[in-house]
Specification:
By secondary structure, the chain is of the alpha/beta class. It has helices spanning about 30-40, 45-55, 75-100, 140-150, 155-175, 175-185, 190-220, 225-235, 240-245, 260-275; strands at about 10-15, 70, 105-110, 115, 120-125, 130, 135-140. Helices cover about 50% and strands about 10% of the residues.
Length: about 290
């Protein structure tokens, strides 16, 4: 992936090495246990960890951490800032054109181990995530190492896909989709709430593809093999594949992100069409 000529974003905050500020929160032992329980039951571990953090006081009563602002000096930090900057350049143009909505740029926080977010405690075990309450993406860059070692799904464009997926959630938030879905999830069964979550996640996969489509059109950012990298990553983190690896069986009703086939197909849809409208998983007859 060619990213050297991307503009780096000024919306990056680097908290790596700072640890967790303030009281409350969960210990690492509790985080590990909740992670194992989540995978065993087919529940997204981030939901269990986040909920426990809120109960433990992780969502309030803490001093907001302030990290280093500006472009990080290490290569992976610069890569993240460049990809974020490129998503800003794409969505600042595409969203008004295709959805008649002005884009509001999100923040991105780099952390190591644990930090605080507007949605409670952020832990490396939760993986990258987007918090709509503070409109910020949180990521521990060790996740990229895990993608390579655990999932055999490394590469610049695979990592960029992960970042663009989280930014895709921000696009959903700007469009007003996330608040409506979260409200609806409070009114339905767990199975139905999971199905809504799958639609949200697959739409974010598709929106990541839309970003890549327009980035490549304008900056010729994709190189040979890049799309295959992202497809492998989408396949590796499908709910069915993760459940099969962790518990030896697949429980579709517990899916929260979509199957490998679904994630690959929706990412490809965004890549091919470059159209936000094509990513409307809530009106799609087939997920």
């Amino acid at each position: 992936m060619r990213w050297d000529n991307f503009r780096t974003s000024s919306n990056v905050e680097d908290r790596r090495g700072m640890g967790m500020a303030g009281g409350g929160g969960l210990g690492i032992g509790a985080i590990v246990i909740l992670g194992l329980v989540g995978w065993a039951l087919g529940i997204d571990p981030r939901l269990l960890i986040g909920g426990a953090e809120m109960i433990a006081g992780g969502g309030s009563g803490y001093q907001q951490q302030q990290g280093r602002q500006g472009t990080p000096q290490d290569e992976m930090g610069r890569f993240v800032a460049a990809v974020l900057g490129n998503t800003e350049d794409v969505w600042n143009t595409v969203l008004p054109q295709q959805a008649n909505r002005q884009y509001q740029e999100p923040k991105l926080v780099l952390f190591s181990g644990a930090t605080r977010s507007g949605c409670g405690g952020a832990q490396s075990a939760m993986g990258p995530f987007y918090c709509p309450l503070d409109q910020t993406v949180y990521i521990d860059l060790s996740f990229f190492e895990e993608m390579q070692s655990r999932f055999r799904a490394g590469g610049d464009f695979a990592y960029a896909y992960v970042l663009a997926h989280e930014v895709g959630h921000h696009v959903e938030n700007v469009l007003g989709i996330l608040p409506r879905v979260q409200e609806r999830q409070q009114q339905v069964s767990r199975t139905e709430a999971n199905q809504l979550s799958v639609r949200v996640e697959l739409m974010a996969d598709c929106l990541a593809g839309v970003w890549a489509h327009h980035s490549n059109q304008r900056w010729q950012s994709l190189e040979q093999g890049d799309i295959e990298e992202a497809i492998r990553a989408a396949e590796a983190i499908g709910d069915d594949r993760l459940q099969k690896q962790s518990q030896g069986r697949v429980v579709p009703d517990s899916f929260t992100h979509g199957s490998s086939e679904q994630r690959m197909r929706w990412l490809t849809t965004g890549l091919k069409t470059g159209q936000v409208q094509a990513c409307d998983t809530f009106r799609a007859s087939r997920l």
